[in-house]
Amino acid sequence: MRVLITAMCYALISLLAATAVKGEPLALGPIEPRVLETKHDRIVQLRDEQLKELNKVLVELQRRLAGALQEVATAKEAHNKAERKAKAVEFVNDNCETALGKSFKMEKLLQGRLDDAEKKLTISETIKIQIIASAANTDNKVVLLQEKLAISETLKIQNIALATSARGNAVLLQEKLTKFEETAAVQETWTDNETGMEFVLVEGGCFDMGSPDGTSGKFDIGGVKINDKRPKEEERNDDEGPVHEVCLDSFYLSSYEVTNRQFRMFDPNHNSGKYGSHTLDDEDQPVVEVGFYGAVKFAAWMKNRIGARKFRPKFRLPSEAEWEYAARAGTGTARYWGDDPDHDKACQYGNFSDKTSNSNWSDEFPHACNDTFAVAAPVHRKANNEPNKFGLHDMLGNVWEWVSDQYHGDYKGAPNDGTAWKDQEKDFVRVVRGGSWSNLPEFVRSAYRFGVRPGNNNGFLGFRIAFSQISPEKANTR
Questions:
Q1: 404 with 432: CB under 8 angstroms?
Q2: Torsion over CA of 72, 73, 74 and 80, rounded to 10 degrees?
Q3: What is the rounded distance in angstroms from the CA atom of residue 326 to the CA atom of residue 464?
Q4: CA gap 469, 68 in Å, rounded
Q5: Do the Cβ atoms of 309 and 332 come closer than 8 Å?
Q6: What's the pLDDT band for 470 if we cut at 50, 70, 90?
Q7: Which residues face 452 on adjacent strands?
Q8: What is the 3-state secondary structure (H, E, C) of the chain?
Q9: Count of C-beta atoms within a 10 Å radius of residue 31
Q10: Spatial separation of the C-alpha atoms in residues 327 and 145, rounded to whole Å
């Protein structure tokens, strides 16, 4: 291709040289203008023809040059493809050699694993033979166990028979125990035949009266200060201390607060009135609107009523120490149903400011429960009336209760034998205990106390009756 291009270039140069006008002078005579014009035109014509031929040669050279360049490009592309193919073949050859090497290694590894599997199979066959032998031995043991099971079933039947007999004996013993407990219960309670008032025998003992302040300790029966590590009782007041030990004798206390029906046997015209639209005067509601002296007169009437007895109990109001001892019923917590930080257990045991009373009277911070009563509840109600451990109902809640003591600002100098503390003039402020249907949790505590003038009476205040221990048989003898 390069030779062809060179030849074409030489031909072009020769053609240009042949047609060039040489510089030698022509041996001509004078030429007329017309002759010169004709020659000039001819020379121009020849030049134009030669230029056309030259253009044709150039076009042909350009065409051939383009074709030559195309062939060069095609040859170069073919050369590149050949090089890529050669590299691909080389890459495949390299990979094939690598794969072949790996194949040889894998074959060797698999052969080793196959040899190991054959060895394990041999061992497995040996173990299988051993297991078959062991299973035969197990079958023998199963037969022995079945024989023992049959013997066990026989013994079980015999034991069931013995248990049935024992259960029968247990039933008989339970019946005897129930009769014994019923007899004991009769001995520990007493009911007044005329009023129907039920009394519980409160066994005497010693207890810590008051609420702990977290610092002062307590005082024993001899007035000696001893250590008391209990924390301060929540919402405690100063008149609830100092904590001191009191030891008292057994006494009887009415299981329920005195009712309107019972009080009207003494005063037929009494009316406990109502609170808002709610009556307080139903027969089984606790009597209210009774002052201290009215409660004392009712107790005297119970002793002296018509129908002389050979032995008359000396009915009276309980002392403050007797009341707290009976209310606590052996507990040391703020309330006899135990710790109740959320105040949601109270309604199982009494009638207080709760969701029902709150819906009627909009109490602030009532107990977080519902005893279903807006005012004083019937004392013999079936629900929300669990007694304390001594069998006493509504020792906290329903109505406040008069006790026989005069009020003092603390317990310094108080009696330690359970008797009433009365060292002031007759009309001095008296103590009331227990809280009522309208009271919030802070007032409903076994240690809470405050004073009320003896002549005062209202719809929140009632009482219950006590008397010293006597023989119940004598008490019921007329």
A1: no
A2: 110
A3: 12
A4: 144
A5: no
A6: low
A7: 430
A8: CHHHHHHHHHHHHHHHHHHCCCCCCCCCCCCCHHHHHHHHHHHHHHHHHHHHHHHHHHHHHHHHHHHHHHHHHHHHHHHHHHHHHHHHHHHHHHHHHHHHHHHHHHHHHHHHHHHHHHHHHHHHHHHHHHHHHHHHHHHHHHHHHHHHHHHHHHHHHHHHHHHHHHHHHHHHHHHHHHHHHHHHHHHHEEECCCCCCEEEEECCEEEEECCCCCCCCEECCCCCEECCCCCCCCCCCHHHCCEEEEEECCEEEECCCCEHHHHHHHCCCCCCCEECCEECCCCCCECCCCCHHHHHHHHHHHHHCCCCCCCCCCCECCCHHHHHHHHHCCCCCCCCCCCCCCCCCHHHCCCCCCHHHHHHHCCCCCCCCCCCCCCCCCCCCCCCCCCCCCCCCCCCCCCEEEEEEECCCCCCCCCCCCCCCCCCCCCCCEEEECCCCCCCHHHCCCCCEEEECCCCCCCCEECCCEEECCCHHHHCCC
A9: 12
A10: 64
Residue listed under structure tokens 């033979």 = 129
Instruction: Give the model confidence (pLDDT) of 311-330 as tens digits.
Output: 578 999 999 999 999 999 99
Half-sphere exposure of 404 (CA within 13 A, CB side): 19
Residue 230 has pLDDT above 60, yes or no: yes
What Å distances lie between residue 18 and 12, 14, 22, 43, 47, CA to CA? Answer: 10, 6, 10, 13, 12
Q: Is 166's pLDDT higher than 70?
A: no
How many angstroms separate the CA atoms of 173 and 180, rounded?
10
Question: Can you read off the two tokens belonging to residue 45?
Answer: 């014509």
Cα torsion 68, 70, 74, 80: sign? positive
Determine the Cα–Cα distance for residues 196 and 219; give it in Å rounded to an integer.
40
Q: How far apart (Å, rounded) are the C-alpha atoms in residues 173 and 178?
A: 9
> In this structure, which amino acid lies at residue 348?
Q
- The residue among 202, 174, 249, 212 whose CA lies nearest residue 390 is 202
Per the DSSP assignment, residues forming a β-bridge with 198 are: 191
- Number of residues assigned to the chain: 478
Residue with tokens 């309208």: 438
Distance CA 131, CA 137 (A): 10
Would you say 303 and 317 are in contact if contact means Cβ atoms under 8 Å apart?
no
List pLDDT tens digits, range 290-313.
Answer: 999 999 999 999 988 755 455 578
Is 432 buried (19+), middle (13-18) or exposed (0-12) by CB count in 10 A?
buried
Return the pLDDT at 355.
82
Phi/psi at 314 (nearest 5 deg)?
-90, 85
464 touches 256 (CB < 8 A) = yes
Two tokens, residue 405: 């003591």
Q: What is the pTM of this model?
A: 0.60
